[in-house]
Amino acid sequence: MYVTRPLSMYRRDPSALSWPPEGPNSGILVIQDADAEPTCCFGLCPSDRVSDLPFPQNKKLKVVYTQNHGEHSHVDETRTLFIPVLNQPLSANQYYVISAKKRSEGKAYMSSKEEDIKTCLFCIPCVSDVKPQALDVHDIYQKFEVRHRNRGGFTAKSVASNGIPPEFLRRKGWRVRTSSSGQFLLDEATGLDQTVRAHLPDFNFPLSEKLSAPVTVGIWYVPFMFIKEGNIKEQITHSAYYQMTLEQQWEQIFACDNEPGKGGVVTVDTEMVEIAGKGQALNRKVIDGVIWFDTEGEENCIGMSLEVVERIKWEETRFGWVGDEGKVKVKTLEEFSGTQKWRSFGCYVLVERFLLKRMNGSLVLTWSFRHTHHIKNKWE
User: Fold this and answer.
1) Cystine design at 50: which of 172, 176, 180, 328 (Cβ 3.0–4.6 Å)?
2) How far apart are CA 3 and CA 5, in angstroms?
3) Residue 275 belongs to what H/E stretch?
4) 67 with 213, same domain?
5) Do 134 and 211 share a domain, yes or no?
6) Are 307 and 23 in contact (CB under 8 A)?
7) Burial of 33: CB neighbours in 10 Å, binned 0-12, 13-18, 19+
8) Do 128 and 213 lie in a common domain?
9) Which PANTHER family did the record assign (predicted)?
10) pTM of the model
């Protein structure tokens, strides 16, 4: 999962580029904010040029390479997304390069291998570029290190020692421009607010309420390559990024009136996934590094990469969640210390809930975790 940081912050403090992302399977998306907008004509006009690293992720980018032939020139343009590699500081300048071409839209560019070099006409070595494929974060041939050239422009090398980038990346002096077709409207996502999380939600609400007001304790973004739903071309068009929020809430798991014989043991589901509009996802299966949740059949499936799943579970485990057994029996003994007779009793458990939403705000799924070590009781 990715947090966002404004580009202007790195312009003011370049040393911040070396800060590693927090937690496993994490990354940083750079937002080109108003204070970092490029200009030309002595600052009087906006420019579409991206002249330095890191590249912004809220802009649609294109790699431009100009070849001069005497009085004529030829310009190649390749529309791409540059997504920072997970678990790397921005100073590493490592990116997954995602195709925005119609035929391979949403797939990751690959490096060829040195052993695949062939000899062509006049004994000239030739490299056949590998076709883009679905992103595999463990595939080193899908990772590229971009370098800024002193004479202007950029070049890239494969992170794999024997890798050869596709032609548009291995050429020296290509430039990057923002596309006129628009940008991705990414809000601020600072990750986890540990102070708010540790404070826990306010418990001052009437017993008639089954749930307390939710409190947001974390916000991240997940690039579309890590979420599987519907057609990938529609996905990149309508939701190139998904917002992931973490909320806390008190949830009532038991209630009774002051009558003899009331009480007992409550069984609580420690985790639950619900697909928006479809209900609880009772079935899970892992295929090619993706966990699929479904309710009634394949048409209701939502896929999430194991990297995101592992990060979610890590976030919950470090806050004390121990619910891998699926269900937990809750039994508490509490003594009412008030001076008046109580009428009603309620038992509440702390729930942390991840909400995955598309860029238009529509809900994709929720993943709830009940922290049975955080139990509170209420009398009226």
Assistant:
1) 176
2) 7
3) strand 271-275
4) no
5) no
6) no
7) middle
8) no
9) OS08G0413200 PROTEIN (PTHR31050), TRANSCRIPTION FACTOR (PTHR31050:SF13)
10) 0.90
Tokens 């802009």 correspond to 59
Q: In the prediction, which pLDDT does 214 show? A: 97
Per the structure, the complete domain to which residue 238 belongs is given by: 191-379
Domain stop point among 183, 199, 230:
183
Q: Work out whether strand 271-275 and strand 279-280 pair parallel, antiparallel, or are unpaired.
A: antiparallel
Phi, psi angle pair for 154, to nearest 5° = -135, 165
Shared domain for 134 and 196, answered yes or no, is no
Residue 218 has pLDDT above 70, yes or no: yes
Report the CATH number that the domain containing residue 68 is assigned in CATH: 2.80.10
Q: Do 340 and 267 reside in the same domain of the chain? A: yes
Q: Report the 3 state secondary structure along the chain.
A: CEEEEEHHHHHHCHHHHHCCCCCCCCEEEEECCHHHCCEECCCCEECCEECCCCCCCCEEEEEEEEEEECCEEEEEEEEEEEEECCCCCHHHCEEEEEECCCCCCCCECCCEEHHHCEECHHHCEECCCCCCECCCCCCHHHCEEEEECCCCCEEEEECCCCEECCHHHHCCCEEEEEEEEEECCCCCCCEECHHHHHHCCCCCCCCCCCECCCEEEEEEEEEHHHEECCCHHHHHHHCCEEEEEEEEEEEEEEEEECCCCCCCCEEEECEEEEECCCEECCEEEEECCEEEEECCCHHHCEEEEHHHHHHHHHHHHCCCCCCCCCEEEECCCCCCCCCCCCCEEEEEEEEEEEEEECCCCCEEEEEEEEEEEEEEEEEC
Instruction: Among 108-117, 213-222, 317-326, 359-368, name the one with the lowest average pLDDT.
Output: 317-326
Tokens of 59: 């802009």
| pLDDT tens readout for residues 23-45 | 999 999 999 988 877 777 766 67
Same domain, 328 and 179: no
